[in-house]
Amino acid sequence: MKLARFFLTGIFFGIVLTKAEAVSWYRIYEMFHFQSFHMYGIIGTALFTGVIGLQLIKKYKIKDYKGLPINVIEKERGFWRYIIGGSMFGLGWALVGSCPGPIFILLGTGTYAIAVVLIGALLGTYIYGLVKDKLPH
């Protein structure tokens, strides 16, 4: 029961993304062909909200749901790892037609072919866990 609020928040978030057509393969196709601002507007809004939210957390020392302080760990600056990682992420997104976030939403809407993507994402995460210590970070 303690996790019910997170479950309900996830359901609400899934409904919002579905209604906003953020999980639509067609909208993603339009984005990668620079034919529509729709997805760029959604991503930009999420980025803006995240930046403002993070700054508020830091400034007012907001605590998590258990009352513990939220520690934002500073990452070392890098260029190539973000270029390479972002390119791999974008290529996968373009090939599949879905970002990893909406996989479960698409399963919930009855798009069962996305299960192949879910299996691939889980397999990729598992393989990364095996080789992460050998990769340059």
From TrEMBL:
Q: Name one Pfam family in it.
A: Sulf_transp
Q: Which residues cross the membrane?
A: 38-57, 78-96, 102-131
- Which keywords appear in this protein's UniProt record, sorted alphabetically? Membrane, Transmembrane, Transmembrane helix
* Source organism, top-level taxon: Bacteria
Q: What is this protein called?
A: Uncharacterized protein
**Species assigned in the record:** Flavobacterium aquaticum
